[in-house]
Design goal:
Blueprint lengths: L2 H17 L2 H15 L17 H18 L3 E3 L9 E5 L7 H12 L7 E5 L9 H7 L3 E2 L2 H9 L3 E4 L4 H4 L15 H9 L3 E7 L9 E2 L1 H7 L5 E2 L19 E4 L13 H25 L7
Helix pairs in contact: 2-3, 3-4, 6-8
């Protein structure tokens, strides 16, 4: 780029920055400072080995941080106990859309010490979505294959997984906070890589978009994992996808370490998984008892 063009683009960025509200500029600066503390090896083009680009991540974190602080008014509990180095965050999943994953990742950047970029393990259908698949990779998310998770853990990353998967995300209102069956893949990977597991209970996400019913036949026809009916979707069109302004409480449990062979019998792996599931259930029960209300507690 020529010096003249660099000067023009720099002037435009300065002008855009000056036009931002002061609070938003402060938030942008805070996020930039937090991301600088995260040692992410980058190639000559500014990407890491998995497609993450810190500038794109920063831009994505600004709206996430606004939602985190001013819409969901999220509070974290026990985040100081998350160990440095490779770690698996295992959380409940709910709410029709993955706002819970976004808020967990935002919490680790804004509140974690040291700050961490959470590498979320997403659903297999994400790469099929135009633009979203690229945006997910640029901000640190990856399809939740064992190979991807294994590579990230061996690189010392902070990986988040939601073992309930779509079963949890599309729960009905009557099933809120009832943990669905967990997959066992995360436990085999934790054993293989000697990675601590931190259970996470997210209180609030289960009420953000109450599921009234699900239409699996229509979902299959549209190539979607589910087609939920909520009080606002599909009746309000795209606006119906907006979550209710519930208050988020993100509870981090004590790190759990497991030993044994990664290729152990299913029954033994499931026993270990149940320990994590019970820990998350306990965090959810504790969090629900402690809050004063869904919206203001």
């Amino acid at each position: 780029m020529s010096p003249r063009r660099r000067g023009l683009s720099g002037a435009l960025r300065d002008l855009a920055g000056a036009a931002l509200p002061l609070r938003l500029r402060d938030l942008n600066g805070e996020i930039a400072d937090r991301l600088k503390k995260i040692p992410t090896p980058l190639n000559d083009y500014g990407f890491d080995s998995y497609g993450l680009h810190p500038d794109v991540a920063r831009q994505a974190l600004i709206p996430c941080a606004i939602v985190y602080r001013y819409y969901f008014r999220a509070q974290t509990h026990g985040i100081e106990g998350v160990p440095s180095g490779r770690v698996l965050l295992i959380a409940n999943h709910a709410g029709q859309l993955p706002f819970d994953g976004a808020m967990l990742g935002t919490a680790m950047v804004l509140e974690g010490e040291p700050p961490r970029i959470v590498r979320a393990m997403g659903e297999y259908w994400i790469p099929r979505l135009p633009w979203i698949s690229v945006a997910a990779a640029r901000t640190g998310a990856m399809v939740g294959t064992p190979e991807n998770c294994r590579a990230l853990l061996h690189s010392g990353e902070c990986v988040a997984a939601f073992p309930e998967g779509v079963r949890g995300m599309n729960k009905l209102w009557s099933e809120r906070y009832q943990l669905q069956s967990f997959g066992t893949g995360f436990m085999r990977l934790a054993l293989e890589s000697d990675t601590p597991v931190v259970p996470v209970g997210i209180v609030g996400s289960e009420e953000q978009q109450p599921g009234l019913a699900n239409l699996p036949a229509l979902a299959r026809l549209l190539g979607m994992p589910a087609f939920p009916l909520t009080p606002t979707f599909p009746w309000l069109g795209p606006l119906g996808l907006l979550p209710l302004p519930v208050r988020y409480h993100i509870h981090f449990g004590e790190p759990l370490r497991f030993s044994g062979p990664a290729d152990d019998e299913d029954a033994e792996i499931e026993r270990k998984v149940e320990v994590v599931r019970a820990a998350i259930s306990g965090l959810l029960d504790e969090g629900r008892r402690a809050r004063r209300g869904i919206f203001f507690g």
